[in-house]
């Protein structure tokens, strides 16, 4: 149960001063809280023996008020210090998680669903923060404060009465331990179900157009209801155990009260203790209710925190498939890129998606990459972006193995426009500035001209300040592609990769963008993957991929002379274009 504190020892060691101060203040406040019941008992005894004077009563009242003020002040200090530490832990862990997410490769996101990662970043972090705040409070109260109360009750009143009243405690410990184990298992299941529900909601929102197009609203609603019912049932199972804590505690505390009151009355009749002692004892017994409850709450909070921490640690401890080299080699400039006998298969597959790729690209060249769907075009680019491990052969940049260069340096050279454009829920300006954070409006308008987006921006209601909506929902497919192109252009990267990123624009717009590319990308390397061959006819070198191999390569004219797949495809597309025009 207390393993969660051991797992968080890195945090407690870093903030040991904060937690030491909070715990000491909590203990002092608890000790001060033990004095008023003795004052009450003393006052009752003075009344019983008729020795209470007005001066003595004034001293008792003033002392009581002073104790309340001091107790309140110290309680404020420990409360603020302790719970602000819990907030710091939550912030640290959330920052650690997002930093980890940014380093992860596609394999990680294939294993963990987005909804589950969101659940770990929200609900689980709240449970961990509660452990570092409320968990520490209940730990101190269920141990130190309880022992202080028992010691005061035993030493100042009667050990016989104290031990008799505490008979239910061992039984409580056994029951609470069983409850704690059940809470841990059920809470873990509930959190996993919540993550799955999150993922279902995300998929429904992202795919709302498809759902409506296929008239699947009722079916999707039914799927969601089934999933929420599963989450509900799992949380109900947690709540059932949770609900058993308080009644169990009340029964055991009530039993302690019965023993204390019955046996205490007998001791008063036997003149072993005074009436004031019995009143004080019962006040202390009432104060002991919270530490007893704290035992149950402690087990509950620690088991929840432990389950959540295990889930978060599982995520954070996942090692990235592609690591930075221990001693990275810095490459001052991007020159030739050389693929030498490169083969690759995705993790979990046995068949190679790329087979013995040999390709040498000189600085400033434009490389066209074409082929059938699934031939390996995108896979080739992913290796250049270093998204996957297990590459056979070597990829060299400026005669340095790409694995010897830091990931940050490699990716800083590359501007990547993928097949599926990612738009952030911000303005058009902010989406383009993602490629260059300090870009001015003049620079933005210039790259929008290169991406042939100037006319479109005039049609948008607020121009550059128009919000594109969730995943760019307010933009058409062609507009999203051109904003993504502008974002890559403004970075002005040494290596530009266009992965079928002109597919949603018409032929006229495509030719203008290609023309702008040719004039702007002189002396810089460009890769263009496309199904429409008109996008690569100007390329310095074109490779045709088939089943992961280079089946043909050369210039546009050379490939036409070969009379193979490239020529057939090009002529077919030319005929299709003529039919459309006619």
UniProtKB/TrEMBL annotation:
Transmembrane segments: 20-44, 56-74, 145-169, 251-269, 281-302
Membrane topology of this protein: Multi-pass membrane protein
Molecular functions per Gene Ontology: ATP binding
Keywords, ordered alphabetically: ATP-binding, Membrane, Nucleotide-binding, Transmembrane, Transmembrane helix
Localization: Cell membrane
Annotated ABC transmembrane type-1 domain residues: 21-304
Residues in ABC transporter domain copies: 337-572
Main location per the UniProt record: membrane
Protein name from the UniProt record: ABC transporter ATP-binding protein
């Amino acid at each position: 149960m207390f393993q969660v504190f051991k797992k968080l020892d890195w945090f407690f060691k870093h903030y040991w001063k904060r937690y030491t101060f909070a715990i000491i203040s909590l203990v002092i406040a608890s000790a001060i809280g033990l004095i008023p019941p003795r004052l009450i008992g003393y006052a009752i005894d003075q009344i019983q023996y008729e020795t209470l004077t007005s001066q003595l009563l004034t001293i008792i009242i003033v002392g009581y008020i002073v104790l309340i003020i001091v107790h309140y002040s110290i309680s404020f200090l420990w409360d603020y210090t302790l719970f602000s530490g819990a907030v710091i832990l939550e912030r640290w862990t959330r920052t650690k998680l997002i930093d980890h997410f940014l380093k992860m490769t596609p394999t990680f996101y294939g294993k963990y669903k987005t909804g589950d990662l969101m659940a770990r970043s929200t609900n689980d972090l709240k449970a961990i923060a509660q452990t570092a705040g409320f968990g520490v409070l209940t730990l101190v109260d269920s141990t130190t404060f309880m022992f202080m109360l028992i010691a005061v009750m035993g030493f100042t009143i009667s050990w016989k009465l104290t031990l008799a009243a505490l008979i239910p405690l061992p039984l409580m410990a056994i029951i609470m331990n069983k409850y704690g184990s059940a809470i841990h298992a059920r809470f873990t299941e509930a959190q996993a179900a919540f993550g799955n529900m999150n993922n279902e909601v995300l998929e429904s929102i992202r795919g709302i157009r498809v759902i409506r197009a296929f008239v699947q609203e009722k079916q999707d609603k039914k799927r969601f209801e089934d999933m929420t019912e599963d989450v509900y049932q799992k949380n109900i199972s947690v709540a059932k155990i949770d609900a058993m804590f308080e009644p169990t505690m009340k029964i055991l505390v009530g039993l302690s009260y019965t023993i204390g009151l019955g046996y205490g009355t007998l001791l008063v009749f036997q003149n072993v203790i005074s009436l004031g002692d019995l009143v004080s004892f019962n006040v202390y017994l009432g104060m002991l209710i919270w530490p007893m409850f704290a035992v149950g709450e402690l087990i509950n909070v620690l088991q929840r925190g432990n389950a959540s921490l295990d889930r978060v640690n599982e995520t954070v401890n996942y090692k990235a498939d592609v690591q930075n080299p221990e001693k990275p080699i810095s490459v001052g400039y991007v020159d030739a890129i050389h693929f030498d006998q490169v083969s690759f298969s995705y993790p979990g597959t046995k068949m190679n998606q790329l087979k013995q790729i040999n390709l040498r690209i000189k600085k400033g060249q434009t490389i066209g990459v074409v082929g059938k769907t699934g031939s390996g075009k995108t896979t080739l680019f992913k290796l250049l972006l270093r998204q996957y491990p297990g590459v056979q052969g070597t990829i060299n940049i400026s005669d340095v193995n790409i694995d010897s260069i830091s990931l940050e340096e490699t990716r800083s050279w590359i501007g990547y426009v993928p097949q599926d454009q990612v738009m952030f829920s911000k303005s058009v300006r902010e989406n383009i500035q993602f490629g260059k954070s300090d870009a001015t409006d003049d620079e933005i308008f210039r790259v929008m001209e290169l991406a042939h987006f100037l006319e479109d921006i005039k049609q948008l209601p607020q121009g550059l300040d128009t919000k594109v909506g969730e995943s760019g929902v307010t933009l058409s497919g062609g507009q999203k592609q051109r904003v993504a192109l502008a974002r890559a252009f403004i970075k002005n990267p040494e290596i530009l990769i266009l992965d079928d990123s002109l597919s949603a624009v018409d032929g006229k717009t495509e030719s203008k963008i290609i023309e702008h590319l040719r004039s702007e990308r002189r002396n810089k390397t460009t890769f263009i993957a496309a199904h429409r061959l008109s996008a690569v006819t100007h390329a310095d070198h074109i490779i045709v991929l088939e089943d992961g191999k280079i089946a043909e390569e050369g210039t546009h004219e050379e490939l036409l002379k070969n009379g193979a797949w490239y020529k057939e495809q090009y002529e077919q597309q030319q005929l299709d274009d003529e039919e459309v025009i006619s």
